[in-house]
Structure formats: structure tokens, C-alpha cells
Fold each of these.
Amino acid sequence: MEYTDKVMDHFMHPRNVGEIENADGVGEMGNAKCGDIMKLYISVEDGIIVDAKFKTFGCGAAIATSSMITEMIIGKSIEEAGNISNKAVAEALGGLPPVKMHCSLLAADALRRAIYDYKKKNGLPVDDCDDCDTCCHDHHDIEEAF
Amino acid sequence: MLPFFTEYFGNPMSVHSFGRDSKKYLEAARGTIAECLGAEPREILFTASGTEADNWAIRGVAKAYAKKGKHIITSQIEHHAVLHTAEIMEKEGYEVTYLPVDSEGFVDPEELKKAIRDDTILVSIMHANNEIGTIQPIAELGQVCKDKGVLFHVDAVQSAGVLPINLAELPVDLLSISAHKFYGPKGAAALFVRKGTRIDSIISGGGQERGLRGGTHNHVAVIGMAKALELAVSEMEENNARIKRLRDLLIDGLIERIPEIKLNGPRGDKRLPGNVNISIKYIEGESMLLHLDMLGIAASSGSACTSGSLDPSHVLLAIGLSHEIAHGSLRLSLGRENTEADINRVLEVLPPIVKNLRAMSPLYEG
């Protein structure tokens, strides 16, 4: 198993690590039992994500995808960010080893939860499926499909 | 080993002079290995890996003694070479008891005694654990088996060449060793089968190993294995004293420098000289490995993320660690080339790596 240079770069020098006090949206995904957990904070102004920070417990790929997704969403509208797929995150990193694809799901799902949280706090309409309550085992199941 | 690639390259099973030369050295290697282990040459059978030796011991004995019974006993912390084989045996109609271990990884001989039944045909317990270094009381466990008339297999892949093994005295019927664990070449290993023990073959083919294990010998690797074991045994005492000291410096140093960590496995003489295994709370193992690797330090982890499976190490779970803690485990193995400077380097670089990763962890409230 080998990570791309881009993954190693984001892992060794993760961008936007930390928390945002009074964040407009917070999404937490995964659980420690499975070995990965990500907490994503977003600040939103006029429907645009102006800041994002994360904290992640997990392997190299989990940390790299967390870092990557924060870079990808800052400056994007809530709608645009909501359309970012886990595959797009993996592609932005130059690919992930197959056994690590679930890490990109962790990041994409944490983002969806943060957006859901933001919409709920602001009385915006939310889709039920936005609050998808997947655990790591579902992640791994989905990984099979790749 | 070099002359055996170019000069004495004959197939040891061939009758021509090239083959006879190779055969002579192959048999000398068998004699050396037997002597190192307190066995007779005919009790040493060559295999291509420790995994094959473990497979053979379990499947070969199970088949040979199937009429006596179909119950096998092993422990929860065995190497997968034993555990996965045992699981397959279950599918083939055998019944397997997986003995639990205590918080340091020890099998209790009393538990073993209770688990043995009339239809038990084999007990397989490892000598020393590869992950947490626990050295089992194999003499005691073997005596329990002997008293009950049950065959005892020991996976000694981690201990051969590292710990004294005298099969002339130990109540052990079968024992697996692998060359690469004592600085020999990869691809050479052996199974000791005590005289009088019946074992079926699992690799059929030519008449090698008295017809018990078909397949052309890798005599080059076998000769290397014998030399490596001879050296390891002769340097054992000296190396162990030095490596144990380094191990304890590393363990004490890590505990002193990093808050909220835990040593897995026992301390002192019941731990493999070169094994250090710690769990570091709030962070995950692979991320530590990657940072260490960037600095030229090779380590391993019990985290699921390093194995590609869902669950962390079965050994760490068996000694009672939670999944969370097991994911954050780190194994550092020391060998004869390591120096105190290496230990100091790890003690210098690991604490900041841990601090850094903890600062990033949503589980850490530091």
C-alpha cells in the first residue's frame, strides 16, 4: 500500500487543523471504535463557506482527506460544497489505496453533516437523507463497490 | 550460502555427484539445527515458511489422529498461521477451543487442563507472542499435555534463536521455527516432529523429507538457516542482555515522556528481549508509523488501518484492550544491530509526534 505524494503532503502538513468557536455548522462522522473519527467545523457568510477547520483521529488517509476537504470547500457555496463527492476528494489527492477509500467517505459525510447542521440552525430546508447515520462498517461496505 | 548458488547447486534428491554434494550439506544443516534445538536430525523436517510448519503441524496431526478425536485447543493470541488454520479445521468438522489469556497475554496451565477432553488430539500454543512479546510457560503447558496424553505443538517462530529451546528436556511434540526470525534467509523454516509422533503429509509430491513433504529443497536457504541458528544460539546470551537493556530503556523512557500510554505485555524476563508494544491514547497507530517512517524509523501497529481489515489486533483485544486503545498501539522491535543512540532518537522524536497528533484529535481534551 502506498500513498501519493499529495496524500503524504496533506498528512505531514495538514491544512486548517483546529476548531471554530461558535461555528455555523459542525459535522462529526465515524467512531473511535472503528479507528477513525472526524469533526468538521464551517463558518458560513451569505451562503458561502468562508472558513473550515477539522479535528481527526485516524490513519494517514483519514487526516489527509480531512485536510483536503477543508481546502476544497473554503470559498464555495453551501450548494457547491454539498455536491462534493468522496471520489472527488480522493481524486484531488491523486487517488487513495482501495482499502483507504472509506476514509474519503468519512470526510464527505462529515461535510454533509456540517452542512445539515448549518441548514437546521438557520431554518433552511433539509433533506432527510442528509442526516445519513452511517457508521464505519457501512463505510467499509460501500468501499467494496469501488 | 554463496557457494551453494554456484558450486554446489545440485538438487539434493539427485543421484549424480552434484546432487550428492548438495545432499551432504543439506543433511549437515539438518544436524546443526537439530543440535541447536536438542533434537535428533531425523526429527527436523524442512518447510518453506513458519506458516507452512504451523499448517502442517495442525492439519497433519489432525488428519493422522482423526480417529482418536476431533478436538483441538489453541489460544486466542496465536499467529494467524495457527488461528486461520484452526478456523478452517472447524469448517472441516473439527472442534476448536480458543483459550483466553490474562491481561499480560499468558495462558493459564490450569485453564488448559480443564479444556482437555477425551477427544482432544492436539494443543497448539505459541512460545512467544509476536505482538506483545509474552513468553508462555511452555514447559508447564507441555507437562499438562503430556500428563493427559495429548500432543503439544509450539509455534516457536518468534523465539527460536532468541530464547533457549532444549527439546531433549521440553515436553513438546512438534515445534515450528523460521529462519528469517533469527537473521537467516526468508523462505526456509522447519518443523520438529518428535520421534513416534504420527503426522500426515499436507504437500504431496516427491520423496523429500522421507516422503512427508514433497517439493525440491531450497538447500541454499536451508544451509543459511542452519548457519544463522548456530550463530544466534552462540551469541544468544550476550545479545539478549544488551537488547533487554535497550528495551527497558525504551519502555521506561516512553512512559516517562508521554502521558497516558500503556505497555502491552509483561515486563522483565517473561517478555521477548526485543519487543516493545505500547498503546497511546487518543491517536491512531498508522499515523504514528508514517511519521516515524519519514524519520527512518520502522515500526508497526495493531491498528486496523495497517492491516486493511476492520478490527484492530486480535492479540490486543484478547488482553482486554478496547478497540479505541488498540487502534493506537505501536510496536517497536529491537534487534542485534540497534544501539542506545537509536533508543535516544525514538525517545526524542516520538513525544512531539504524539503531541502533534493529539492536538489534531477530536478525542483529546488536553
Amino acid sequence: MTAPLHFHTIAELAPLVAAGRISSEALTRACLAEIDAHDRALNAFITVLGESALAQARERDAEIAAGRCRGPLHGIPISLKDLIDQAGVPTTAASRVREGHVAAADAPVTARLREAGAVLIGKTNLHEFAFGTTSDDSAFGAVRNPHDPARSPGGSSGGSAVAIVTGMSVASIGTDTGGSIRIPAAACGTVGLKPAWGEVPCDGVVALSPSLDHVGPLARSVADAWLLYLVLRGDATAALWPLPAARALKGLRLGVPRPYFHDILDDGVRERFAESLAWLRQAGVRTVDVAVPHATGIPPVYLHTSLPEATACHAATLASAPERYTRNVRLRLEMGRYVLAEDYVRAQTARDVLRAEVDAALDGCDALVLPTLPIPAPPIGAPTVDVGGTPQPVRQMMLRQTQLFNLTGHPAVSLPIGDTAAGLPCGIQLVGRRRDTEGLLATAAACEPHLIA
Amino acid sequence: MTIEDWLANACADADRRGLPDLEPLLVSLAEATRALRTTGWDDAAPAKPSTPAAPDPGAPR
């Protein structure tokens, strides 16, 4: 290990913590020092739990000294997107609407992390109420991308991705309603997993669009995301040793959906994706072109599902305190009031079609593979970006490759594939069969070593 | 209700509520609604069984 310890993966750190060779307190202090040094510029955290985290770390160290190790997360500093309840701590959702809120209890996912021995180091910044993809509409100010602070880290779990790549926490827990874990993972150069729908409980997490909402991990490796997923899902932590294994790479078959998903791509993203596929083929992966026949219809289906669900979740506070929302988020929530019930129902029929089409595309394949984002991280506040000489709306670009799998519930994971010539990270998205998140993770773990030169 | 009627009513309502900034968003929503309605989803929908089946726990609803 050459990088400082707090930049390593959970899989690397866990045996050292378990053996007492490094202390949780030292790891936690190192993460807190990174927060002290960089968070004023990057704005990744809304609440830093310094004293509480150090107290937790000392308790974990005492347990190791007494011969008790809870599992691979024992003593590992982990951050939570500030949409997830942690007992005694405000859940701001990055909004003034939530002023004065303090969570009475842990969300189930928080309780599971705590039971697994994780050290809860703080609550990360996000796009207000997770209703956006850039993390710039936040009552606590825009989150900034560490690769270029003038750019967005993606969103809505922007602070979580920034925390990981800057060593402020070893991993983070985010939420994903249209891509909000995978988008910032790609924009910042880390791993982000949206599990299959319904596997990880959303209780104690501020809802956005309940039929699209997912909770999942952002992490430095597929193995780390896998460990966190198992804990979030509620598996007994003692059963997590040994760490999950990748499947054999040779003979894996990946479906490449090109129509629609390759129609609008930044040149740098296209190059990195093509290069990554070439490396995978060289290593023995077979690829086959597939299609989602109704893919061009995805954005209206997403819009007519997400808007009315979000507006319903916010109806009370939109009526009582509309001025406390940021302008853009309020306007989008107001927009949802005008979606007709008949169109919401049409969108649900369309979801059945899309779900069947993704199932069909996966038939005979271990996973689908596509770019996670069609563009690198956009400048903060930009309404449009230039793609191939044409201005494209940032919001539509950010959601373009990811929202389908929220509509269908398929598990999906984003892995880093290196940077564009301008030094901005790109991501590749692997999509697994419905209800087979572990199969997807085994495939992703096999591909991961071949994705960055 | 036609999309044109819906859009006119929605813009008038937003204006009455003091939200004129909503108008461009409602125009884009109208375009999306037109796309949703003209895609022919019903023709492509998987056949539904005539009697209700047990709920699919993996389906996101």
C-alpha cells in the first residue's frame, strides 16, 4: 500500500483493522483531517460528526482489543447522504424546508451499518431532496467536483462521491431515483451500485418517488460495494467473510444496447467506452449488440412517473412553505401538479413494456454494458452542454443512460474507466438481471481489473 | 382533454398562482406528454393474465 491508509478499500483495510494492525481511531482521524483540509472548497458535507465518530471508533478499537470483530466494516469510516436518518442527527435533505428536524431513530440501513461496526462520520451534501442530478441546488451551497471545482460532481448523491475520492470517508451510502448513485460515481471516478428495486429498505429515508427510489453504496471497488450492499440488505455481517468472489471473465457475454444509448455521446466518453470494451474483449469477454426497442420513449415515461410521485411526497410542504425550497426544485415540484392521472397510468403501462424489453435484451447475456453518463461532469449551473456541436440540456443528458433501470428495477452498477483528455472521469454501467444484484456484482468484479489501463 | 387544452389551462392556473416561471416547464411537459401518448405503449404491452396472478416482489411498484 503506497497511498495513505484512508484512501484504501474496505477489502484492504478490513483485515488490518481486524488484526489490530491499524486502529479505527487513526483511520477516522485521517478522514476528519481531509474534511478539515478540503471541505471548505468542495462542500461535500452538511454535518460532520467529529466527536461522535471518534467515540464510535474508540469503541470499535476496544472491541478488537477484547477479541471481537463484527465483520469487514468494523471500524471503517462511512458517510451517509443527508437524506438518510441517523438517530439524534438532523436529516436536512439539503433543504431549508427541513430546518429543525432531528431524526428520532436510525433508518434500518443506518442501524445495519452501525451493527456491522461502521463508524458514521457525517452526512453528505446533495441536490435538494435528491430532486436533481448536479448537486448545485442545495440550501448548503453547491457541491464541487474535486477533479475541477468549477464543475458539478453529479448528483444527487454528489457529496457522497466527493467524500470517497478525496479520502473524507472510505465509502458512502446514497440514494438513486433516476441515477443519483451512478451519475456522481461516474462524474467523480468511483463505483456506485443501485441494487435491484426493493432489496434495500427505504424506511427512514426521505422519499422522492417511491416506485423509483433505491438506497445503495458508493465505494472504491466492486468488492466494497458488494460488502456494503450485503450489509444494507440485512445479511449477517459474520457471514461476509471471506469476501465475495468475482466470476470467471472468460466466456462472459455482455449485451451492448447501441440505438438511443450511443446516439448522443461526448467524443471523450465514446473513446473511453470503446477502449474499455476492446480491453474486455481482449480478456475473453464476448459482446453482442442488443436493443431496447422503445428506448426513445424513456424520458417521457420517467417524467410522468417521477414528477407526480415527487409532488405527492411534497404536497404538504409545497402548500405550507413553498418559499423554503430552492427555486428550481420548487418549480419542478409544482410542475408535477399538472400531470394528468391518465398520463401517469400510461407511463406505468410503458414501464411494463420497457421492463420486458430490458429482460429480452439480457436474454443470453450476463449483463448489459453502456456508458453511465453521455458527458463528463458539466460546469456548475450550466443549463446546457455542447455535445458534437449541438447544445443539449444538462438534466436530460445526466439522466439519459440511467433512468431506464429505475423504471424497470434492474440492478445497475457504475465503474470508473479513466478520464477524458481534459482529465474528467468517465464511467461504464453494467446492468444485471432483475432480482440478481449478486450476479451483476460477480460480473462487475470480473470486469473491473480490465477497465483502467 | 387535448394536450393543447391542458396546456392552456395549466399555464393560466400557474399564472393565477403567481408562478409565471412555470410556463416554459409546462410547455416542455406538454411535449413529453405528446410523446408519451403517441408512442403506442398499449400495443407493445405484455399480455395480462385474465385472472390476477400473485404479485411479483421484484416489480418496482
